[in-house]
Design a protein that fits this description.
Layout (H helix, E strand, L loop, with lengths): L1 H12 L3 H14 L7 E2 H10 L8 H7 L6 E2 L1 H12 L18 E3 H4 L9 E2 L1 H5 L11 E3 H14 L2 H20 L3 E2 L2 E2 L2
Antiparallel strand pairs: 1-2, 3-4, 3-5, 6-7
Helix pairs in contact: 1-5
Bound molecules: zinc ion (ZN) (2 copies).
GO molecular function: calcium ion binding
Pfam families: EF-hand_7 (PF13499)
Keywords: Calcium
């Protein structure tokens, strides 16, 4: 989680003023009683209202709560903002805890291409074999998958590669409309 906090802080520093203002706005919308702190109740109410039910899971709240004082300050909510904007809101498919820095993902499901059926689990569930998934699944950690994706993109023929890049471009453009962010990248 520490790594994610650093990424979130760097991300926030580079946000345009309007988006920084938007992050403040989200914080104050969550902070129902205006005491500058977000309690678990305010947190889940806000996220359930927005139909972001997976995010309302208490495991994410606990992960965000750096000093374990039972409430979130602005800096901690910035991490939530970063997680939602960068599409890093992933939960273990087995025990449902929030996945922080390193997790394992079924490579067959990851590369299937429909983009919806990925299967990721936390290190504990993977190490303790506490999950049920299809037979023959090959699990890779998220860093390995990232470098594999890059290798695959490079291996693709020139046209295919430009297709991939076009897709990335489209995502980036959509990302600009969607608060200038796509896949954790910041568009300058
Ligand atoms: Zn798990
Ligand atoms: Zn799978």
């Amino acid at each position: 989680m520490e790594e994610m906090r650093r990424a979130a802080a760097a991300y926030y520093e580079n946000l345009p003023v309007t988006n920084k203002r938007y992050a403040r706005y989200i914080f104050s919308s969550m902070d129902k009683n205006g005491d500058g702190k977000i309690k678990l109740k305010e947190y889940s109410e806000y996220l359930n209202k927005d139909n972001k039910t997976a995010l309302a899971h208490p495991s994410l709240f606990r992960a965000l709560d750096k000093n374990n004082n039972g409430s979130l300050d602005f800096e901690e909510v910035v991490v939530l903002y970063y997680i939602t904007q960068s599409g890093r809101a992933l939960f273990c498919k087995s025990c449902h805890t929030f996945l922080t820095d390193v997790y394992f993902s079924c490579s067959q499901c990851f590369f299937k291409g429909d983009g919806v059926s990925t299967y990721e689990i936390c290190c504990d569930c993977y190490g303790g074999k506490k999950f049920k998934h299809h037979g023959g699944a090959i699990f890779c950690d998220n860093y390995t998958l990232l470098s594999r994706s890059r290798r695959l993109a490079l291996q693709a023929s020139k046209e295919k590669l430009s297709g991939v890049l076009e897709e990335i471009d489209i995502e980036m453009i959509e990302g600009v409309a969607n608060l200038a962010v796509s896949a954790g990248c910041i568009i300058m």
